[in-house]
Structure formats: C-alpha cells, structure tokens
Design a protein that fits this description.
Umud Fragment, subunit A, about 240 residues, alpha+beta, seven-stranded antiparallel beta sheet, 2 domains
Length: about 240
C-alpha cells in the first residue's frame, strides 16, 4: 500500500510539473506573439506612415525652431524598412515651397536627414539675385523667411535636372542647403511634417545625433522646469 501511495504521489507530481511547463510554455508563446505584432506594427508605421524627428539646427527658423519635435508623414512619398538602407520611392511629388524631410546628398556625413523648403522643381531655371530668389526669371514671394533678402547673396542661374529638387532653409543666412551641396534626387525624399508634438528650448548640440545622455537630461529638466517647454507650439500643424 505504501509503495502504491508513493507511486501515485510521484505521478501527481509529474503531472503537476507537466502542467506548469505547459502553462509557462503557453504564456511564453502568447508573449512572443504579442511582441511580434508590436514589432510588426512599429515597422509598418515607421517604415511607411509616420516618423518622429527632432530639429537640431536653426536653418528653418522662424518656421521650425531648434528643439521642435515633429511627426513626419511618409505617406505617398517613401516606404522602407527601419534601420536598413532599403526604401522605395512612391507617387507623391513635393510642391513648390512645401517643407520636406530628405536624405541630404552628403555621403561623407552619412546621408543625414535634413528639413528644408522646396524652392526649385525639376526643369526650373533658378537664380538668387541680391538675396531674392527668381524662378524662371520671376521673383518668388517668400513671406516665411527669417530675415529680409541680403544684397550680397547671389547664386546661379542653374537649371534643375529632371527628377531633382532645389532645397533652401527659411533662415537663408544660416542654412546649409542646395546652394552649397547641390540638388536633391527624388529618391532621397522621405516625407513632409504634419505637426509639432513637443518643443523644448535647449541648446543646439543636445539634439544632434549621439548626444543621448544630454537629451535624456534635457527631457528630465523639462519635467522639473515646465517653462522650458514651448507650450504654444504644441500641436501646431503644417
């Protein structure tokens, strides 16, 4: 009888252990499936719908300020796989004076993402005379500019090739743009900004790539000192 009781106890223990293993296996499988869908959703959204960007320089002031956090729409412009160089150009084309995020044609800098305004379209004859932009010999009205035209600012004329765009910053006297490094191929267009979801008044270097500790400290400081958040800029749309 004692042997039968021990055998029954061992059988129950094995059954209990088997049920526990089955439970944890099932739970691990559910967690894995949940994370799979989360990752898939992230890749889908980041790769083809919207991306988040932070403005690290003053080249687009007063339209976009240093520390503005943007939601950028990729819909119709570009689709790709995040964290890889693979992407595919889509059907939408930038319009004149539209703000665009693009991969700057600067291989020595790793093709960084820039945000500028589309000034010249494919086929345009573009010239800057005494700070005023002329498109096909007609002066371009630019109410968004940071400063009035500078008489010493001259460029061109240049003919913009097919499939390329000429980008310039609104802060014309402090913008590293197409006047210095040339045209932007259509394949480099990422998308256009939709809205500002956060804006923090902090030094330019905080928002540059690689400054993770400084950026974290800036966010923490904004929680402690809310006045450093530019509240009036939040949810501004383009």
């Amino acid at each position: 009888m004692k042997a039968d009781a021990e055998a029954q106890s061992q059988a129950l223990a094995r059954e209990d252990a088997s049920e526990k293993r089955s439970f944890w296996k099932s739970r691990a499988m559910r967690e894995a499936i949940s994370w799979f869908w989360v990752i898939l959703a992230f890749l889908f959204i980041e790769g083809g719908i919207v991306q988040a960007r932070v403005i690290p320089s003053g080249s687009m002031e007063k339209t976009v300020l240093i520390g503005d956090h943007l939601i950028v729409s990729r819909v119709g412009y570009d689709v790709g796989v995040p964290f890889t160089p693979w992407h595919q150009t889509l059907w939408r084309e930038p319009k004149r004076q539209q703000i665009i995020v693009f991969r700057a044609p600067l291989p020595e800098m790793g093709f960084p993402d820039f945000i500028k305004r589309t000034i010249g379209l494919p086929g345009d004859l573009l010239e800057v005379r005494r700070g005023i932009v002329y498109i096909n010999n007609e002066a371009l009205v630019e109410p968004y500019r940071m400063d009035p035209p500078s008489p010493g600012d001259n460029f061109g004329p240049v003919k913009i090739p097919a499939g390329n765009y000429f980008m310039m910053g609104d802060n014309r006297n402090n913008s590293y743009d197409s006047r210095f490094w040339g045209f932007v191929p259509r394949a480099n267009i990422v998308g256009t900004p939709l809205l500002i979801y956060m804006s923090i008044d902090a030094p330019e270097e905080v928002w540059e790539p690689g400054h993770i500790e400084q950026r974290f400290a800036t966010y923490l400081n904004a929680l402690i000192h809310p006045h450093e958040v530019r509240w009036k800029r939040l949810f501004h749309t383009f």
